[in-house]
Specification:
With about 475 residues, the chain is α/β, with parallel strands linked by helices. It is built from 14 helices and 16 strands. The strands form 3 sheets. A 7-stranded mixed beta sheet has the order 4-10-9-8-7-5-6, with helices on both faces.
């Protein structure tokens, strides 16, 4: 099993290493970016000087021939890698038959087959399960909340500090960082926020046990001061916070959440939009939860489910799904035939290429590299994650843990100039995320780590001037 990481057949680009031969953006990219600036709203942010031409595996090539190792992967979308031949062929075959058949009007086999496969695999708190499809992570969360409200007859939802659940009217209210909703208030009602159990930033001197109890006490305060537990339909939590800083929810805390939900008739909803589909070393982080006796009631999933095609899903036990008020869920394009054809291949690829095991191996390589850098750079305050979803938090001072977003911004800029695409995260934008496609080679991970360290050195030198 240890050799699996390095046995995949690769094409020329998929096996390549990063190579940037000119200042970015190159001449062809400049033309496209100028056209973008004229025609696309600036609020659709992008600071990367890269215009993609093609992709394969963990690599992309821009319109000027520069090659980049992509450790963002469409923000967790390309777990199985770019240009998987089986996905391409399945989509081509489906496209020759028909593109679309709305599930409310005509049933198509891809929708039903993919739902059946996910029902076998999704680790929710039930044996018999049902799945519905929508188009995006935000839609999956919206529908998970609607389902919980419909079934419980309750109106309120608890979310967490640092959470990111989307940019729709509801999910931007659920999202903690107000950059995503500034100027479009008032927010939707019935959303209450507890403090996420961030062990790195727990009160100074607390043990792990004391820290977890501290955060549970914060949740109890929400019940006492904001909304009674008997009025709450769902508690929605990311097993590993994404935009919040790649912070894993401690299993002990989730176990306590499960108990609180059971005692009060609350549904526990896992937002696995970014953490799902082999990223954690299992198909879902919720697999770890279920193995330890605290599976969620509902899982919302998206991103890597469709290998780059718009697809998302909500899975829950049949006893939940069969109680939904008729008419409140559905989607014109949800479960599109092309996307479901891709989704079926994604599940097969994860199994056949053993991508859960690869996620552990790639994640361990990256984690070891980051902790080695941590031993040499005082600005790295914390390295954390599960499987191949890892966050590196940068601070100005390890004792005070003051965030260092200026350094992170420079590291990202220097890294892309050398051929490594990385992205920030965290409430203070002081975390760099590791989200490499799970088909990256050993040589690519090593090359990425070398570029990463070079970017740290160059950025610290620049800031010292």
């Amino acid at each position: 099993m240890k050799g699996v990481l390095f046995m995949l057949k690769t094409d020329e680009l998929q096996a390549a290493l990063p190579q940037v031969s000119m200042p970015l953006p190159g001449p062809n990219a400049k033309k496209v970016l100028a056209k973008r600036a004229k025609n696309v709203p600036a609020a659709v942010l992008c600071s990367y000087p890269v215009v993609i031409s093609r992709g394969s595996g963990a690599m992309i090539e821009d319109v000027d021939g520069n090659r980049f190792l992509d450790w963002v992967a469409g923000v967790g979308v390309m777990n199985v890698g770019y240009s998987q031949p089986r996905v391409i062929e399945a989509v081509k075959q489906q496209a020759e038959r028909f593109f679309h058949g709305m599930i409310n009007i005509t049933t198509h086999a891809n929708y039903v087959d993919l739902a059946a496969q996910i029902n076998k695999l999704a680790p929710v708190n039930a044996e018999d399960k049902k799945t519905m499809f929508v188009n995006s992570g935000a839609e999956a969360i919206e529908n998970a909340v609607k389902i919980a409200k419909s079934v419980t007859g309750r109106a309120d939802v608890i979310v967490f500090s640092g959470a990111f659940h989307g940019r729709t009217a509801l999910t931007s209210t659920m999202t903690a960082k107000k950059t995503y909703s500034y100027g479009i208030e008032p927010a939707m009602g019935g959303i209450h926020r507890a403090e996420f159990p961030n062990l790195y930033r727990a009160p100074h001197g607390y043990s792990r046990e004391e820290s977890i109890q501290y955060y549970l006490d914060k949740l109890q305060y929400v019940f006492e001061q904001a909304v009674p537990a008997k009025q709450v339909a769902a508690i929605v939590i990311e097993p590993i916070q994404g935009e919040g800083g790649f912070i894993p929810a401690p299993f002990e805390y989730v176990a306590a959440l499960r108990k609180i939900c059971d005692e009060n008739g609350i549904m526990l909803v896992a937002d696995e939009v970014q953490s799902g589909f082999a990223r954690s070393g299992k198909l879902f982080v919720s697999n770890y939860w279920k193995e330890n006796g605290f599976a969620p009631d509902i899982i919302a999933m998206a991103k890597s489910i469709g290998a780059g095609l718009p697809l998302a899903a909500v899975t829950a036990g049949s006893q939940i799904m069969d109680k939904i008020q008729s008419g409140i869920v559905g989607s014109t394009f949800g479960g599109n035939a092309l996307a479901c054809a891709a989704g079926l291949q994604v599940l097969d690829i994860i199994k056949e290429q053993q991508l859960t095991e690869r996620a552990k191996q790639i994640g361990q390589m990256a984690f070891d590299g980051f902790t080695d850098m941590q031993s040499r750079y005082a600005e790295i305050g914390d390295v954390r994650g599960i499987g191949s979803m890892i966050g590196v938090e940068f601070v100005k001072n390890r004792a005070t843990k003051e965030p260092y977003p200026e350094l992170v911004a420079k590291i990202i800029k220097h890294a892309v100039s050398h051929g490594l695409i990385i992205e920030n995260a965290g409430v203070h934008d002081n975390v760099i995320r590791f989200l490499s496609p799970l088909v990256a080679t050993k040589e690519q991970i090593q090359a990425g780590l070398a570029i990463y360290e070079t970017a740290i050195k160059e950025s610290l030198t620049e800031l010292a001037k």
